[in-house]
């Protein structure tokens, strides 16, 4: 009953042209990182609204969403978990965290990671051991690696940078552009809190980090400082 009602709402918002654009944007072609993913053509705002509407869905129904071939259905399921985590007590937060990690195979594109991982994984681990993130950082799975670095966003907001830097070092030689962007982004977030701390890390690594990672990390620097890093003259 739950899924039938949600599916009706999804179809009311579905747009073929937007679905086509999304399929291109999220790289669903053969050999691309989102190969085979399907889209209904919903906006992010519509997905958030539907997740809010159906936030009381039982876990079995959320699991059904996470097993869907449709990107938006997986996103809605993950957003329901975010809403449930934010409003839950410690027991419920742990339940949501465990469910999220157990079903992480569904978190298989960058937006699914970025929109939900800091809110659940990062938030849960703020005052807890973080060995899971290091295991993910060493994984061969692209999305586990992105979860590892994106989870540290919550730590950064508390001026806790150690895990960001340690995981960034593990990912410095990664070959995937999406990891370069994610690491650079988190380094940039550190710089928003403490430029000196970010630069201490960059001076140690910038000459051998991927160019995209460096560009993301220094995006907010003054132009002259950016040029110096890109030229290798810092």
Q: Helix and strand succession?
A: HHHHHHHHHHHHHHH
**Helical amount among residues, as a percent range?**
55-70%
Q: What form results from the Cα inertia axes?
A: globular
Low-confidence stretches: none
Averaged pLDDT, please?
97
Largest sheet: number of strands, sense, barrel closure: none
Determine the N-to-C terminus distance: 61 Å
Structural class: mainly alpha
Number of strands: 0
Output the number of helix runs: 15
Please give the oligomerization state of what you see.
single chain
Strand % is: under 5%
Structural summary, described in words:
The N and C termini lie far apart (61 Å). This protein is mainly α and 234 residues long. The chain has helices at 2-13, 16-25, 44-53, 59-66, 71-87, 90-102, 110-124, 131-137, 142-150, 153-156, 162-171, 177-193, 195-205, 211-217, 223-231. It is globular. The mean pLDDT is 97.
Tags for this model:
234 residues; mainly alpha; 15 helices
Describe, in short, the structure shown.
The protein has 234 residues and is mostly helical. The protein has helices spanning 2-13, 16-25, 44-53, 59-66, 71-87, 90-102, 110-124, 131-137, 142-150, 153-156, 162-171, 177-193, 195-205, 211-217, 223-231. The longest helix is centred in the middle third of the chain and has 17 residues, at 71-87.
List the topology elements.
Blueprint: H1 2-13, H2 16-25, H3 44-53, H4 59-66, H5 71-87, H6 90-102, H7 110-124, H8 131-137, H9 142-150, H10 153-156, H11 162-171, H12 177-193, H13 195-205, H14 211-217, H15 223-231
């Amino acid at each position: 009953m739950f899924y039938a009602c949600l599916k009706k709402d999804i179809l009311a918002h579905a747009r073929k042209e937007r679905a086509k654009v999304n399929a291109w944007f999220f790289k669903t072609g053969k050999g691309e990182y989102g190969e085979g993913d399907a889209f209904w053509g919903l906006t992010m705002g519509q997905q958030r609204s539907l997740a809010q509407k159906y936030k009381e869905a039982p876990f079995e129904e959320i699991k059904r969403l996470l097993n869907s071939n449709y990107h938006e259905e997986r996103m809605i399921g993950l957003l329901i978990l975010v809403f449930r985590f934010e409003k839950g007590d410690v027991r419920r937060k742990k339940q949501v965290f465990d469910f999220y990690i157990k079903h992480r195979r569904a978190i298989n594109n960058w937006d699914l990671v970025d929109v939900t991982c800091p809110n659940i994984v990062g938030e849960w681990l703020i005052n807890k051991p973080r060995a899971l993130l290091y295991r993910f950082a060493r994984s061969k799975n692209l999305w586990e690696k992105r979860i590892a670095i994106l989870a540290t966003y919550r730590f950064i907001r508390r001026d806790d940078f150690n895990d960001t830097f340690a995981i960034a070092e593990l990912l410095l030689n990664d070959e995937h552009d999406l990891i370069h962007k994610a690491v650079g982004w988190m380094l940039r977030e550190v710089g928003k809190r403490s430029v000196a701390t970010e630069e201490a890390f960059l001076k140690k690594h910038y000459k051998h980090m991927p160019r995209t990672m460096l560009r993301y990390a220094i995006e907010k620097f003054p132009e002259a400082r950016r040029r110096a890093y890109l030229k290798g003259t810092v």
